[in-house]
Amino acid sequence: MKIRTVILLLLLVSFAAVASGQGTLADYERANGLQAKFQASAINLPGAMNWIPRTDHFWYRRTVIGGSEIVWVDAENLTRRPAFDHEKLAASLSSASGQKYTSLKLPLGGAANLTFVDSEQAIEWLSFKVGLVLLVLGGTHFFNMAMIAKLGYRLDQVIRRLRASNGGAAHAAGAVPAGRMLD
User: Fold this and answer.
1) Mean pLDDT of 129-152
2) Domain total for the chain?
3) Domain check: are 136 and 183 in the same one?
4) Same domain, 119 and 131
5) Lower CB density within 10 Å: C or N end of the chain?
6) How far apart are CA 91 and CA 105, in angstroms?
7) Cβ(128)–Cβ(107) below 8 Å
8) Which of 49, 44, 32 lies closest to 69 in space, CA to CA?
9) The domain containing residue 182 runs over which residues?
10) Opening angle at CA 89, ends 83 and 93, nearest 5
11) Structure pTM?
12) Are the C-beta atoms of 60 and 49 separated by less than 8 Å?
């Protein structure tokens, strides 16, 4: 019975550790609110340049009143223009998703998530929400696997100590089949 109690206690502690490490919805909403508050006060600031592979072109995000826009630049000819029709993209996304998007508030990810494809005639991106979900799930999986490994190691130590304190008598006498835990 002692081993079951120890295992149950270890499982409860590991679940409590997982639950306490997760931020609340209010924490995320407060962080998003602060970001929106401070971004609104910074106007006409360019973001990081993002080169488009195998071209002389790059793009960057620029803050404007009410949001941001993405600017495409031809470095060879020293020209720049909006990277795409922001209004048309907002209308298409709003229609497809059922949510309301504007040309200045598009759900495009950062540099790592926005890619120009088809000879720069189209874009692909991973939305922030999907990226956040994948990040949280990946982190949770990594943490759970670490806890399971640690639990397995501790459980192995407990079983070895019990066998050693028994002098191996229970196992040698055939009372505990090989590969089975002691109760």
Assistant:
1) 76
2) 2
3) yes
4) no
5) N
6) 12
7) yes
8) 44
9) 1-39+127-183
10) 145
11) 0.49
12) yes
